[in-house]
Write a structure and sequence with these properties.
Length: 127
Amino acid sequence: QVHLGESGGGLAQAGGSLRLSCAASGLAFSGYYMGWFRQAPGKEREFVAGISWVSTVKDYADSVRDRFIISKDAHKNVMFLQMDNLKPEDAAVYYCAAATAWGRLAAPSDVKSYPYWGQGIQVTVSS
């Protein structure tokens, strides 16, 4: 059974940093693409960043490019999202997600591409 668990959320000031982690279990050690999504109150869930487990492929939403960095520890099955220069509009519940893929997903920003989801973790940014 696949389980994804997020950690590292909390409160940060605008301009500050947070690092999110997503620990995965029940996945094979290869053949997956994992992503971070976020959902603010009253808004749709949106893609933030994604990473291939078996290649160097990384994808970012334009809104976070150059501020957020996605990375992985494939040996420990953990994905990270380093969030720097946080803005109030980054505040949301952040979710990690996983899908079977060798390389990049055909539609990494589409929530329907991911069958596995974590419970989500709150990120709050004070201005």
